[in-house]
């Protein structure tokens, strides 16, 4: 065998695991998702206390950052910037319709996903990663306790419920940012609400909440998976947290594109801007 063939084989052996790992991780995440959904609906349900505890923790670490971030982003991006643009055409009264499209459909679910992933998702990965390093997860399996049902399911259900709740708050405070931007530009509030309600529909509302709920489920599954597959001690926990956040953000982008295109295709009436 020539020296060139040996070098090519060595390079292939080095690159092979790196090329396979992402696909293996995606497959493992899909399997974990299926196990989590089945465990959530199949009795018994021993995770009640853990579910309440996870909901309280997520509320505690995410609510204030979500409110501040949503109000500031809505005031600065679609608020002041759009107001300056609409003022050029004398159409500042269309601010309400713009906020219907920007905040309800996109900004509110996206900001919710970012805040929940950055605060609650990292905490989940670090918590499960530390338990993995201390071999607590192995001890649970030896005792006959299912880690998926007792650890993953309550976190999955908690983030789904919390992100759906947070989406409502994000919409409220995002619209508040638009009202402040309208007031700063010395415009009347009545046209804002008139165009907002004219452009809104129940499809926009449930679509926003459903999208945010899916974001919560994706965040919880990825963070739980990365936490339960940690290796390498304390340094491995830190790497798992970083990898989880990167994977969550990429997944949110993909899910957002697929969900938005599907919603627009199945409900063409919301394409009309009134």
Q: Could you explain the architecture of this structure?
A:
- This protein has one domain (47-271).
- The protein is built from 8 helices and no strands.
- It has helices at residues 3-41, 48-88, 95-133, 136-142, 147-184, 189-199, 202-228, 233-266.
- By secondary structure, it is mainly α.
- The termini are far apart.
Number of distinct beta strands? 0
Note the gap between the termini: 72 Å
| Mean pLDDT figure | 84
Q: How many structural domains can be distinguished in the coordinates? A: 1
Oligomeric state of shown chains: single chain
Query: In what range is the share of β-strand residues?
Result: under 5%
Shape: elongated
Series of H and E elements: HHHHHHHH
- Helix tally equals 8
Low-confidence stretches: 11-20
Radius of gyration based on Cα positions:
23 Å
Helix proportion range? over 70%
What structural category do the secondary elements indicate? mainly alpha
Describe the sheet with the most strands: none
Keywords:
single chain; elongated; 274 residues
Write the layout of secondary structure elements.
Layout: H1 3-41, H2 48-88, H3 95-133, H4 136-142, H5 147-184, H6 189-199, H7 202-228, H8 233-266
Could you write a compact summary of the structure shown?
It contains eight helices and no strands. It is mainly alpha-helical.
């Amino acid at each position: 065998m020539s020296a060139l063939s040996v070098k090519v084989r060595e390079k292939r052996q080095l690159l092979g695991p790196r090329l396979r790992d992402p696909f293996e991780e995606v497959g493992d995440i899909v399997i974990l998702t299926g196990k989590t959904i089945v465990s959530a609906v199949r009795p018994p349900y021993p995770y009640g206390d853990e579910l309440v505890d996870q909901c309280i923790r997520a509320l505690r670490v995410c609510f204030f950052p979500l409110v501040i971030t949503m109000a500031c982003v809505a005031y600065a991006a679609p608020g002041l910037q759009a107001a300056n643009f609409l003022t050029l055409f004398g159409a500042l009264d269309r601010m309400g319709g713009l906020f219907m499209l920007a905040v309800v459909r996109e900004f509110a679910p996206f900001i919710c996903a970012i805040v929940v992933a950055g605060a609650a998702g990292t905490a989940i990965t670090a918590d499960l990663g530390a338990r993995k390093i201390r071999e607590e997860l192995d001890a649970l399996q030896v005792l006959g306790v299912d880690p998926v049902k007792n650890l993953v399911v309550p976190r999955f259900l908690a983030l789904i419920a919390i992100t759906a709740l947070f989406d409502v708050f994000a919409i409220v405070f995002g619209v508040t940012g638009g009202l402040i931007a309208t007031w700063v530009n010395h415009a009347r509030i009545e046209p804002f609400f008139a165009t907002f309600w004219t452009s809104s529909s129940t499809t926009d509302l449930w679509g926003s909440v459903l999208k945010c709920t899916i974001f919560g489920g994706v965040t919880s599954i990825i963070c739980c998976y990365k936490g339960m597959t940690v290796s390498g001690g304390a340094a491995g926990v830190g790497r798992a947290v970083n990898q989880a956040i990167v994977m969550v953000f990429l997944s949110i982008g993909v899910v957002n594109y697929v969900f938005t295109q599907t919603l627009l295709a199945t409900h063409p009436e919301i394409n009309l801007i009134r």
